[in-house]
Amino acid sequence: MNYIFVLLMIWATLAKMNTGSSVVYTRWGKETCPSGAELVLSGFTGGSWYDHRGAAVEPLCLPKDPQWGVYKNGVDKWRAFVFGAEYETQTFTGSTVSLQHHDVPCAVCLTRGRSVIKMFPARRTCYSGWKLEYQGYLMAGYHSFPAGTQYTCIDSNADTLHGGQSEKNGMLFYYVEARCGSLKCPPYVEGRELTCVVCSKE
């Protein structure tokens, strides 16, 4: 019996020490990774044009050092397109108003010793047993634009791209606010912007 107990204790200790697992995620709105995470790449946020009906939904973190395969220069209408991304923050309060029309950076980050990564909307802290990677505000495309978009957690202390060009449009990020009805209020509040956190777990 004692032998089995010792084996179980050794197994539990080894499991805690295991650093073979890791998670990779994108930190939207920042060029760097949080403390404890390794920077894989710092890039440009890209996506589809805000009013293209055939738009791709998810944003991309595009590297600053692209590599090319076989290519043909010149715009061809029989293609999908990728553009840059901009913040649309003019109706919010505080320092985020200054982000208006600026280009959105991104960072791909690797955290070792974790096996699960998850974005939780409407939270400022992680649930018990989870580790905070970053916190932010939930953003997405404007509700009446034709292009479909994806809810994205933009860092609450967002940066802008150096050398970017203002008001060139592309994929546009607007704050997401709650609307009551099928969404229960309370606990949600009509017209209140939603926060978000990205959390990891062993």
Automatic annotation (TrEMBL):
Residues 1-15 form the signal peptide. One of its GO terms (cellular component) is extracellular space. Keywords: Signal. InterPro entries: Ca-dependent_lectin. This is Short-chain collagen C4-like isoform X4. It comes from Crassostrea virginica (Eastern oyster).
